[in-house]
Automatic annotation (TrEMBL):
This is TonB-dependent receptor. It comes from Thalassotalea euphylliae. Its main location: membrane. One of its GO terms (biological process) is siderophore-iron import into cell. Residues 1-27 form the signal peptide.
Length: 756
């Protein structure tokens, strides 16, 4: 372990002992009042158990969505089970203020943005699992090449606004927290469930869960959970040689917890360990627009050997304790390791980029390159050698964080104070090698040129982050005010150049929110916070961190018929930042960051949920989410970043559609439910300014329908059917990294869930 990290971990241990400290994010209701009554004692015990479960959730019982001082959205287990989506992109399509850029059709490498934050590899959103940062290296290399399997989640929470200061380091757009399956709290009945499904394109899913809780009057109660999932598909894209273009993903999760019986305070210890891996025949190579029009699912022969292979390990130890009825502490120590190899075709042996070749395929030498790309002719010249890169990266992320929650009543006012401290370190090691291959008779063969190392570096970031947040409830008026402080120490080693660069940064991020409840049905909210995205290690001194002031103003309405939320937001960027990666379309200057200057993002989010009675046994739930976004640069500048180019004030940010809407209509019965989900997204620009390879090009407008239905055959058996992309719409969702890419075509599947 790095020496700096060791010292900081010891410091946190001392602080924890001295303060008894830390808590639980939104730890739920206070324990029942002390009383000699046995029933009240039992109620207190149950309340503690509920609190221990909710520590990993952004939204606990204490802070209901209806009074949250910020835009808040929760997809619960029922919502996740309705469509049985394996793709986080499809899960989030019904959440206002969320932007998606598809890439592979399965969500293997998610691109998610919130409120104008760049979608690129979800790198500007605080992505968490059970309240802990889950990106491979959230500070040093935040691109989400690993993403948790949403099929094993019980809840997905999205928060935008002032509360983002609690999570960090990225506080521009907000936070997404995925709550994994909890250990059963039923001591009488173990949880045993299997879920098996199959469908088009060789789709297969196998999902098994076993969880049990035991009680021992002498020692306490304890429980465990074992969960395994297997997902696979042959892929919907087609190689001329008939090889698969799909994927296999596997995941195994184990949890165990223990609550001692004779402790002076209620306590819960939990251990969590997980392993997951993926093998996917995925590529960065897309199509020309003309070839896309002929067959959007084809793949060029040059990508026949492309393959991603990764493994992910996670370990976590958590401790929760009620020190008093009003003071709780929650501490987590964690370690994640991620090892990935992405071997793929990257370019020809020329300065001519793949974007240039694919956007002008009939021009001069580009036509010859295209013939080699498709296997129509063999490689004949040195320039026609195909450069195949072996992109080997190793990541770790480790840390300890502690959160304290104090809930009291002062001068007839309810006061809740959160305070947290996290010491974190993460690292990425890049070892990229390159082979020169030849296209010969439709096969890729070695050119005989020795393999070369093109990248060999190591970036490390160590961060100390703390926050304090106060929530004051006056009854009708709920106020929150908080501040986050981050100290980040980065180090970048380039082993090829023989250089080491170090940098540090300290930032103070305040936030303020308010919710005023006019009556039982209507309330208004306001929020402001400082947004921040840190620089990765080793950037030039003239590269500024991404900073903004974010504002929101809105209302909530709720009665017996429906719930509605309408929020306007304004993000005023002092500096927008771009990062050059293969996935963004860059070939050179990889991992170099660029200043984009001032940007304004203005938008509107609205959501409506209603449920109408059709008959005594049938209801019609309706859910609508709409997002309007206007995101423009506020200055003129020239940039070599592939998504910007020569920007003029007023140019639009790439991949942010002006209008998005999601409409779900269902028919529900006690024993069955059928639902139709419609998604619309406007076209959006592929690049902001002029002088770029994708200048003037737009993604296609999306009109997508998904259908799902389930039927409860018995108490133990449920069957379900779903059809993704019901109308089989074929659109260009992006031309990055290299060439036009399709979304997922129609895929029908059927499955069963059996509990025993």
């Amino acid at each position: 372990m790095n020496n700096k990290f060791s010292k900081l971990a010891i410091a946190l241990g001392v602080a924890y002992s001295a303060l008894a400290a830390s808590h639980i994010s939104y730890a739920a209701e206070s324990a029942a009042e002390n009383t000699a009554d046995a029933n009240a004692t039992q109620q207190a015990s149950n309340s503690n158990a509920e609190k221990s479960i909710e520590v990993i959730s952004i939204f606990g019982q204490r802070n209901q969505l209806a009074t949250a001082t910020g835009s808040a959205f929760v997809l619960n287990e029922e919502a996740l089970n309705q469509y049985e989506f394996d793709d986080i992109h499809r899960v989030l399509q019904s959440v206002p203020g969320v932007y998606i850029r598809e890439e592979d059709g399965y969500g293997l490498r998610p691109n998610i943005g919130l409120r104008g934050a760049t979608t690129e590899r979800s790198s500007k959103v605080a992505i968490m699992e059970d309240g802990v940062l889950i990106a491979p290296a959230p500070y040093a290399a935040p691109a989400a090449y690993y993403f948790p399997n949403v099929s094993r989640m019980e809840q997905v929470e999205v928060f935008k606004g002032p509360a983002a200061i609690k999570y960090g380091p990225n506080t521009i757009g907000g936070a997404i927290n995925m709550v994994s399956r909890q250990i059963t709290d039923d001591t009488d009945k173990p949880l045993r469930e299997i879920d098996i499904a199959g469908g088009q394109d060789g789709y297969l899913k196998g999902h098994g869960i076993y969880s049990q809780r035991l009680e021992n009057s002498e020692y306490g109660d304890y429980g465990f959970l074992i969960e395994g999932i297997h997902l696979a598909s042959d892929g919907f894209k087609e190689l001329p040689n008939g090889e698969d273009t799909g994927f296999v993903k596997r995941e195994l999760m184990f949890k165990a917890d223990f609550s001692p019986a004779n402790s002076k305070y209620y306590q819960l210890w939990q251990f969590k360990a997980g392993y997951s891996d993926e093998e996917s025949d995925e590529t960065y190579l897309g199509l020309t627009d003309a070839d896309f029009a002929i067959n959007p699912h084809q793949r060029y022969l040059a990508s026949q050997d492309d393959k991603m292979d990764w493994e992910h390990y996670q370990f976590q130890v958590s401790h929760y304790i009620d020190i008093t009825d009003s003071l709780s502490v929650f501490t987590q120590a964690y370690r994640r390791d991620f090892d990935r190899d992405w071997d793929r075709f990257n370019s020809f042996n020329t300065n001519r980029s793949m974007q240039t070749i694919l956007t002008s395929p009939d021009t001069g030498l580009n036509a010859l390159f295209m013939q080699v790309l498709t296997g129509e002719r063999d490689s004949l010249t040195t320039e026609e050698q195909l450069l195949f890169t072996l992109n080997d990266r190793k990541f770790y992320s480790q840390g300890i964080e502690s959160k304290l929650f104090w809930d009291t009543r002062w001068l007839a006012v309810d006061v809740a104070i959160d305070a947290g401290l996290r010491i974190h370190q993460d690292q990425v090691e890049r070892n990229h090698r390159q082979n020169a291959l030849l296209m010969q008779n439709g096969q890729l063969v070695n050119s005989g040129i020795a393999q070369s190392t093109i990248t060999d570096n190591e970036d490390t970031a160590t961060a100390v982050a703390s926050y304090v947040n106060a929530d004051v409830d006056f009854g009708q008026l709920n106020l929150t005010a908080g501040v986050r402080i981050e100290y980040i120490d980065g180090e970048a080693k380039d082993f090829l150049a023989g250089t080491t660069e170090s940098d540090t940064d300290t930032v103070v991020l305040p936030g303020l929110g308010a919710f005023y409840q006019v009556n039982d049905e209507l309330g208004f909210l306001f929020g402001v916070n400082k947004g921040f995205v840190p620089n990765s290690p080793g950037q030039d001194t003239d590269i500024d961190p991404e900073e903004s002031w974010n504002y929101e103003l809105g209302m909530r309405f709720s009665n017996k018929l429906f719930n509605a939320e309408l929020i306007g937001f304004y993000n005023d960027y002092e500096n927008l930042k771009g990062t050059c990666t293969f996935s963004s379309g860059c070939r050179d200057d990889l991992d170099v960051e660029f200043n984009g200057g001032e940007v304004e993002v203005v938008g509107l989010e609205s959501s409506v949920q209603a449920e109408f009675a059709i008959s005594q046994s049938l209801t019609m739930p309706i859910n609508i989410a709409y997002t309007y976004t206007d995101a423009e640069f506020q200055n003129d500048f020239q940039s070599t970043f592939s998504q910007w180019g020569n920007v003029t004030k007023g140019d639009k940010l790439p991949y942010l559609p002006e209008n998005q809407i999601s409409v779900e209509v269902a028919i529900a019965h006690e024993n069955w439910r059928a639902a139709l989900l419609f998604k619309h997204a406007d076209e959006s620009p592929e690049a902001a300014g002029t002088g770029t390879e994708l200048e003037g090009l737009m993604t296609d407008e999306i009109q997508q329908w998904d259908f799902s239905a389930w039927y409860q055959v018995t108490n133990a058996l449920r069957t379900y059917v779903k059809v993704d992309n019901l109308t089989d719409e074929e659109v260009i969702v992006s031309r990055r990294p290299f060439g036009a890419r399709p979304g997922k075509p129609q895929q029908a599947s059927i499955g069963i869930k059996y509990s025993f």
